[in-house]
TrEMBL record:
Full protein name: Putative membrane protein
Chain ranges passing through the membrane: 6-31
Domain of life of the native organism: Bacteria
Keywords for the protein's UniProt record, in alphabetical order: Membrane, Transmembrane, Transmembrane helix
Keyword Membrane applies: yes
Amino acid sequence: MYWLFVLIFISLPFVIFVYGRGISFLIACVLTTDIRKSSKMF
């Protein structure tokens, strides 16, 4: 049971890093699509 907590504790920063990268990638995709839409308007 102890090694399970150790494994979770070690993998937690990696999971947070991947999750953060995924969110930033999603925001970047949304921003680029918004910029394309606004550039089509002008």
